[in-house]
Amino acid sequence: MAAMSTTPAALPRVLSGIQPTSDSFHFGNYLGALRQWASLQDGHEAFYFIADLHSLTVPQDPKELRKRFVACAAQLIASGVDPARSAMFLQSHVPEHAELGWVLQCITSFGEARRMTQFKDKSGKDGEGAASVGLFAYPMLMAADILLYRPKYVPVGEDQRQHLELTRDLAQRFNHRYKKTFPLPEPYILKSTGKIYDLQNPTAKMSKSASSAAGIIDMLDEPSVSAKKIRSAVTDSGSEVRFDPEEKPGVSNLLTIYSSLSGRTVPELEDAYAGRGYGDFKKDLAEVVVDFVTPFRSRTLELLDDRAELEAVLERGSAQAREVASRTLSDVYDRVGLIRIGSGRD
Ligand code: TYM
């Protein structure tokens, strides 16, 4: 009897993006999102991109931006994204993102876009009258990024939750108004590391735009600089190493970082440092951080030696992404009533 051919069942998809807003990603990006990007490659078909269109929503120096893409790509690979298994690409290389973004803007109400906390925060200082329309439309572009790939999971940090909620609302609205087109994507946000805090101001999130240099650990910092930042991180009154985000936000944040880099649980660490005070704790964590960033940094630098290969990875990734994205966009255009001349549809 002839052997039956078996087609492997399609793997569920994951998708996520990161903005190229600085030369180095930071610990919040890595622990909140990138580490999960790497682990979810097992058992999923993964699409990971650099959100260059999103970065234009606030002013960027074109020269700086242009230089950053390969460094971002190298850091994604050094973080564990494997281009042989995942499509890694630049958002602007897949024009379907902006195209679906427009359709989604047309089904979003002004009021719901205005309620997005990121818009309120980022336009806060100078008032919404000075904010770009791009900043206002940012969440709908993000919804398009996601929905084009019909992913099951979107691994992100806690600060993206509201955007994911809007994405689900828009997917449901579209499905209801036209025809079922989009499965609802689920945020994949870790409870432990979904929000990493600023080392100097541990009730605010670690953030490129808001943190001081001392409050943020850049993945590409010199390891000795990262160690110093850990040693001078703000700790709380008292001397007990205890996880208590309300009373001890500084120590709790350091415990989160320590636990996630070392694989030791928070209670294990609390036991290990019982009665020993903050000094030992921070000194040991500084070593753990150095052991982590040193190989990350050298791997990134090594990858940057072969710029042509990084560009080839991004090119292959965008071809893979376009294959999926163009099919979804064509369904969407069809369903909303846009025609393609010569497509045979009427
Ligand atoms: P971005 O570039 O600000 O950050 C990239 C990822 O890092 C996470 N993150 C954090 N996680 C924990 N603690 C922190 N302090 C911290 N800071 C940043 C973010 O949550 C994010 O997951 N809008 C997105 C980019 C984007 C996107 C998408 C993501 C565009 N389209 C589609 C997912 C799907 C952003 O600005 O992330």
Class by alpha and beta content: mainly alpha
With strands numbered from the N-terminus, the spatial order across the biggest sheet is 1-2-3
* Total DSSP E strands: 5
Q: Outline, from the CA principal axes? A: globular
Distance between the termini: 45 Å
Q: Which small-molecule ligands are present, each listed once?
A: tryptophanyl-5'AMP
Helix content, binned percent? 40-55%
- Rg is 22 Å
What is the H/E order?
EHEHHEHHHHEHEHHHHH
What percentage of the residues does DSSP assign to strands (E)? 5-15%
Which consecutive residue ranges, at least 5 long each, have pLDDT under 50? 1-5
* Main β-sheet description: 3 strands, parallel
Number of helices: 13
Mean pLDDT: 94
Explain what the structure shows.
It is a single chain. The protein has 346 residues and is mostly helical. The chain is built from 13 helices and 5 strands. The strands form 2 sheets. A 3-stranded parallel sheet has the order 1-2-3. Strands 4-5 form a two-stranded parallel ribbon. Helix 8 links the parallel strand 4 (153-155) and strand 5 (186-188). Helix 4 packs parallel to helix 13 and helix 7 crosses helix 8 (161-177). The longest helix has 30 residues, at 307-336. It is globular. Tryptophanyl-5'AMP is lined by residues 16-19, 28-29, 32-33, 51, 54, 142, 145-146, 154, 156-157, 159-160, 194-196, 205-207.
Give the tags.
346 residues; mainly alpha; three-stranded parallel beta sheet; two-stranded parallel ribbon; 13 helices; 7% strand; binds tryptophanyl-5'AMP
